[in-house]
Amino acid sequence: MTWGLTCQHMQILSHCLNGNRKLETEKELEQQRQMGVGEGKLPLFETRVRKGRTLYQLYALSVLLSICMILAYRALHIPADGEKGRWAWIGLSMAEFWFGFYWILTQSLRWNLVYHHTFKDRLSTRYKDNLPGVDIFVCTADPKIEPPIMVINTVLSVMAYEYPTEKLSVYLSDDGGSDITFYALLEASRFAKAWIPFCKKYKIEPRSPGAYFKEASSGPDDGLREWLDIKRLYEEMENNINSVANSGVVNNDIRKQHKGFSEWSGTTTPRDHQPIVKILIDGRDGARDFEGNVLPTLVYMAREKKQHRHHNFKAGAMNSLLRVSSEISNGALILNVDCDMYSNNSETIKDALCFFMDEEKGHEVAFIQLPQHFNNVTKNDLYGNSILSISEIDFHGLDGYGGPLYIGSGCYHRRESLLGKKYDQTHKLELVARERDYKSTSLDLEERAKNLITCAFEDNTQWGNEVGLKYGCPVEDVITGLSIQCNGWKSVYFNPRQRGFLGIAPVTLEQVLVQHKRWSEGDFQIILSKYSPISYGRNKITIGLQMGYATYCLWAPCSIPTLYYAIIPPIYFLHGISLFPVASDCWFLPFAYVITVTSIYSLVESLMVGYTAKGWWNEQRIWLYKRLASYPFALFDTALKQIGIAKSAFVITAKVASDEVLQRYNKEIIEFGSASVPVVIIATVAVLSPVCLIIGLWRLLVVQGVGLMGSMLTQVIICGVVTLINLPVYEAMLVRQDAGRIPAFVALISLTLSYVAYALPLD
């Protein structure tokens, strides 16, 4: 393969490369014990297949049969030419075909669930101090949207991992190129001297000081005075950072504290600045904490930005980190986390190493993905942020077919797999400690690293294509993970009992819809690109994994049949036109069965994974809102990009909100609060359903004198469910007076659009 790299690029790539691991069943493990195999040969982890799936498989087959019967009914009972409802009928047939097809795809996520358990004690006994270096990447982009105090809490949490500190290096990529973020990291480097030994001495969790002091009302009994001192130091640091962040200026007194501030001049802007690399703590030179222990290496990086150069968003930052870290520490293992996703479990590095360093199968593993959880989800998960069905079900199902997706945060990578190396089963790559450059000074390393993150460095190379994270897609993480799996590697989903990472979830409806638009748009672009799991993954990954990828890649197209089903049956019910079988007809049974059984299963599954009953209902509401008011825009924007009218963009989800908004969020009051097009769509559908229900029932019961058990029952159910699910919308329109309500003119627009829908002539 032609890499198209200069001599310097080849040296960097060569400098970056090197790995190991094994998957075991309980039966094989027991056989090994009975054979008297020594501790050095026992697996470092075991895999269990979820039992009791026969009942689920019978349920799935019954639903599949009912779906087939529904499609048969649609095909056999198409209204004749000229008969009212013919085209609506055909549209429903197409929508139901899509729902059936998509449901089949989702079965790949539930057919073969597997779970892993690690043996960290065996890892420690077997490898002792012969562990590989770990480089941790934290990415931030805008100190106004991602507060510096939040960022450094994440940095401090990963600096305090239970791992040899001389083998730990933490890198902060600042795509905002902000001296405020640099100042925050400088403060964190000082506080770390007290924080890290305190964490390890008292074994505290979590190791984000902000999260820890928020949860802990008092310190350990044998260290209360020390706890108070550490808390005071943290509050001083927090006040200093917030004071500078709020003022937006780093004053001259602070600038004198470190020569690194000389990088920022009056002409430096977030979109136009030189490359910056500053080693704030050099783990090679014996930098010590207050207890005399070696500190982890800590590095600030801001890659060069020029307004006329495309910087490839987070993927570009990650690739820059790959090159800079290869020059400074060159860890064999890489962990990347979002700046709001702090470590909640200080042992996850050792968990990951149990997979990578297992003697039998470790060499096959490219990355270990941990779930994303959030520390600010309300009791009943108002916006469905916890995505427990994905973290507790879907990804375990993907793991049964070769591994989960790479989702961009909370993921441990083998360095060489990120750099494009293909898996070779004839050549096992050992994940071993690598020699660091102890001869060069910090200044020398900084200067060499700067040359690797200029705008021109990647020109005429394969970075972003065959090397590093992929460019050209808003979800660069997903296509990168898919490419790695297609290179022959496997991935593992590890869901520890103590959650590995905790982040900040959106607290307004608008933030949720924007976030899901970005995800669904990026996923849909994948299936239309050369990286489509259907074509690109053919004969490279399992069919089950291809189906799993397609489930997420087809989120956006699901919006069309959902919109159709939410609008057309109610309108036709209002006009007295039936689109479903009579309740007494045998053809009604498959409709009733699918609606009833899938709803019950969804509720039971949600309760099992940790939702409340109200949380499940909130999840159904957000599921509808995403398909009505988020995914359609993802579909539309993707179409514009395909014909060259628009370009890809990366929208950062805001991590800050006003106190008033947070108060409503904690009370589980939905934040509408704007006159945006998505809110207009939601309000219009919400108004349309009760209008159709009331007028339709009046026509049905009073005018025609027909009972509910006639041919309109299914349409009554659809109108009723959509009306019930939108009760918060009616409250926001008619009752609420706070800033999060739906503006009056939005309600007027929705009423007008509902009337237009009613007045339109039907086929």
Automatic annotation (TrEMBL):
GO cellular component terms attached to this protein's record: Golgi membrane
Binding site for Mn(2+): K314, D338
Cell compartments where the protein resides: Golgi apparatus membrane
Binding site for UDP-alpha-D-glucose: E146, D175
GO molecular function, a single term: cellulose synthase (UDP-forming) activity
InterPro entries found in the cross-reference section: Cellulose_synth, Nucleotide-diphossugar_trans
Membrane-topology descriptor: Multi-pass membrane protein
BP GO annotations: cell wall organization; cellulose biosynthetic process; plant-type cell wall organization or biogenesis
Role noted for this protein: Thought to be a Golgi-localized beta-glycan synthase that polymerize the backbones of noncellulosic polysaccharides (hemicelluloses) of plant cell wall.
Family according to the record: Belongs to the glycosyltransferase 2 family. Plant cellulose synthase-like E subfamily.
PANTHER family: X-BOX TRANSCRIPTION FACTOR-RELATED (PTHR13301)
Protein name as it appears in the record: Cellulose synthase-like protein E6
